[in-house]
C-alpha cells in the first residue's frame, strides 16, 4: 500500500469514528451550558483514534474542514494536535508544507514533525519521539484549496490561485478556526514551514499583521513570529545560499567556491534584467510560482 493511500484510509476511518462519537454525546443529552455551540463544533471534529494508532499518544486530536469562501464552496482541511502537557499555556504553531502543492498532512504531519508517523510497508502508525507537540499545540493545514483534502466547488478558482490568494484563504481559515477553538485565541501564535512555504509563511505573516491593524482588538491574532526551513525565496538568493552552505561545510573547495561566486554575480545581474513571465517573477521583489 502506498503512503498516500494509507493516509487517505486512516483519515477516512477517523471521520467514521468522529461521527459515532458526536451522535453518542448528543444522545446522552450533554452540552446544556452557554458553551454548547462551541463544544458541539469542536466535538464534531474530535478524532477518537486512527486505525493502526499505537497506544500512548496521550493527546487530543481534531480534524475537519473550515470554509474560507461560502459562495465558491471553498474549504480547507486541517489536523490539530494538542500539546502533550500544559495545553493552556503552550504556543500554537501552524505548519505549512510547500511545493506548491505539497500536503501538510502527508509530509509534515506524518513524515516529519507530527506525533504520529507512517511506516513503510504497513498501515500501522508509530509514535514520533521528536514530535513538535511536545513543545506546542500543533496545527497542520492543507492549502491552498486543491491540495490534499482541501477543495473548491468552483473550478475557476484553480486557475486563480497564487501566493496572495493562498494567504487570503489561510488568514480566513485562521479567523474561522479560532471561532471554533476560542480557547486558543490568546495563545502565542507562530507560523512554520519549509520549501515553498518560504513564500506561504511570510505572505500569511504579512496578511496577519496588516489585518490586525484594521480589525477590532477582539479579533486580533496573537502573532509572534515565523520559522522557515530550506526556504524557497527567490532564485538569486537560493543559488547564493546553496553555494555558501556547501563551502562552509567543506563540500566544495575554495577554488570552486571562487568560481561559483563569480558565476553568481553574473547570474544575479541577469536576473535583474530578465522577467520570467512563466512564473510571475518580479526582479528584486519576489516571484509567484503559480504564474
UniProtKB/TrEMBL annotation:
Single biological process term from Gene Ontology: proteolysis
UniProt xrefs under PROSITE patterns: CARBOXYPEPT_SER_SER
InterPro entries reported in the protein's UniProt record: AB_hydrolase_fold (IPR029058), Peptidase_S10 (IPR001563), Ser_caboxypep_ser_AS (IPR018202)
Superkingdom of source: Eukaryota
Keywords linked to the UniProt accession: Carboxypeptidase, Hydrolase, Protease, Signal
Signal peptide: 1-24
Keyword Protease set for record: yes
Keyword Hydrolase: yes
One GO CC term, this protein: vacuole
Enzyme kind, highest EC tier: hydrolase
Pfam families on file: Peptidase_S10 (PF00450)
EC number: 3.4.16.-
GO molecular function: serine-type carboxypeptidase activity
Family: Belongs to the peptidase S10 family.
Protein's name according to its UniProt entry: Carboxypeptidase
Organism: Aegilops tauschii (Tausch's goatgrass)
Amino acid at each position: 500500500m502506498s503512503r498516500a493511500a494509507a493516509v487517505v484510509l486512516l483519515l477516512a476511518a477517523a471521520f467514521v469514528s468522529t461521527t459515532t462519537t458526536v451522535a453518542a454525546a448528543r444522545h446522552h443529552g450533554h452540552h446544556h451550558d452557554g458553551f454548547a455551540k462551541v463544544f458541539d463544533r469542536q466535538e464534531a471534529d474530535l478524532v477518537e483514534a486512527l486505525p493502526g494508532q499505537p497506544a500512548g499518544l496521550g493527546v487530543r486530536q481534531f480534524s475537519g474542514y473550515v470554509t474560507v469562501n461560502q459562495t465558491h464552496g471553498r474549504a480547507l482541511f486541517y489536523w490539530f494536535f494538542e500539546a502533550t502537557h500544559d495545553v493552556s499555556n503552550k504556543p500554537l504553531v501552524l505548519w505549512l508544507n510547500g511545493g506548491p502543492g505539497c500536503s501538510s498532512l502527508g509530509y509534515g504531519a506524518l513524515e516529519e514533525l507530527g506525533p504520529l508517523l507512517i511506516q513503510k510497508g504497513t498501515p500501522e502508525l508509530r509514535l514520533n519521539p521528536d514530535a513538535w507537540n511536545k513543545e506546542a499545540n500543533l496545527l497542520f493545514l492543507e492549502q491552498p484549496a486543491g491540495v490534499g483534502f482541501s477543495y473548491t466547488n468552483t473550478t475557476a478558482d484553480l486557475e486563480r490561485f497564487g501566493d496572495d490568494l493562498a494567504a487570503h484563504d489561510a488568514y480566513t481559515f485562521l479567523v474561522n478556526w479560532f471561532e471554533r477553538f476560542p480557547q486558543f485565541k490568546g495563545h502565542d501564535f507562530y507560523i512554520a514551514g519549509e520549501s515553498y512555504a518560504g513564500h506561504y509563511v511570510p505572505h500569511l505573516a504579512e496578511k496577519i499583521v496588516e489585518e490586525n491593524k484594521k480589525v477590532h482588538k477582539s479579533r486580533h491574532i496573537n502573532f509572534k513570529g515565523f520559522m522557515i526551513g530550506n526556504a524557497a525565496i527567490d532564485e538569486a538568493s537560493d543559488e547564493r545560499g546553496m553555494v555558501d552552505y556547501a563551502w562552509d561545510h567543506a563540500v566544495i573547495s575554495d577554488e570552486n567556491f571562487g568560481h561559483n561566486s563569480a558565476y553568481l554575480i553574473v547570474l544575479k545581474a541577469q536576473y535583474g534584467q530578465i522577467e520570467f513571465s512563466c512564473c510571475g517573477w518580479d526582479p528584486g521583489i519576489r516571484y509567484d510560482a503559480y504564474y
